[in-house]
Predict the structure.
Amino acid sequence: MPHYAQLVMGPAGSGKSTYCSTMAEHFKVIKRNCLVVNLDPAAEYFDYPVALDIRELIQLDDVMEDEDLQYGPNGGLIFCMEYFLKNMEWLRESLFDDAEEDSYFMFDCPGQIELYTHLPVMKTLVEHFSNWDVRVCGVFLIDSQFFGDPSKFISGMLTSLSCMINLEITHLSVMTKVDKLSKNSKKELRKFLDPELQNLILAEMCDTYHDKKYRKLTEALCQLIDDYSMVRFVMFDRSSENSINVLLQHIDTALQFDEDQPVKVKDYEYDDEDDRCDVNERD
């Protein structure tokens, strides 16, 4: 049977580590095994158990302190991820070789968007997963504050769309930090779950110089997203068990997780031996 994996992506500060922590706790409650892997060489703190840490292989601080390389934070992180790709056997041997069949993983990824949109780093990682019989679902997180401003919302949708097209994997777009919003703000967010951008965004635009100047470009971008209908959002409220369950159901469906699970047959308990005999006779 295949393994299953969530590739948790999104801009810096979108809540990836918090998402992994919440999901790991939820898996524990519903009695499902899940291993969380840190793929961010710049990470410093985790509030979830880490099954494997890329910092055991390479750390951003070490790269930036190297006098020969002289990299800054972004260049250093890209160097770390390219070094990681050259050592994929380390990941396979450390994680997959001894893993049980149909194991479930969550990969907490770095927040640099260029890793997903135009650099081959994450795409190459996904190709390795495919060769190792690992089904992957991309979970792209966007802070719910993006949905309060039309230009930020379009930017977030296009980034998610670019990531989806580049990686070519099953993909979910998730709005995070909903638990920090008021009830009225949560209700207002629902119009972004399945939006008609032409009506939603253009109605929010003002008569400012900037909005007038870029109105045609905005209309074209909205039309592009509406025509393909490829980006739809799922709300993630970590304070709501129902919200977590709904999101996990979407991911399980994308991974075809439930379809591969063995059928569970419940053993009936009989009050006495006569009841057991009656059942056998009817059979």
In short: The longest helix spans residues 150-167. The chain has one domain: 3-194+232-282. The two ends are 34 Å apart (CA to CA).
